[in-house]
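FORM 7B: Structural annotation worksheet

SECTION A. Query
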Amino acid sequence: MRRIILPCAVAAMTLATEPLFAQPIESSSLSSGRQVAITICGNCHYVTPTTRSGAIASPSFEEIANLPSTTALSLKAFLRSNHNKMPNFIISPADTDDVIAYILSLKRK
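SECTION B. Predicted structure
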């Protein structure tokens, strides 16, 4: 009986610390973030690296992602505060996290 319990306990602890479905959730989050950004920000900003029409504001999301000061925390603070030259908008916490994940995915590695 002890020979079965120990391997099961080790497996349970290992599985509890490793997300089994991280990739699909992450891809879904990035896709959702891109869609939210296109809908809310796309009239003024270049949201996707390949889109270069219709946007009037600078910087692009790719430029934002590559600023040295850009972190998840700095983006969250920015998206949750009033904007001087931009319209104020309300984004749900889940959508905010998705947009942040999308922006950070554009960072050059």
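SECTION C. Observations
Confidence is low (pLDDT under 50) at residues 6-25. The chain has one domain: 22-105.

SECTION D. Sign-off
Analyst initials: ____
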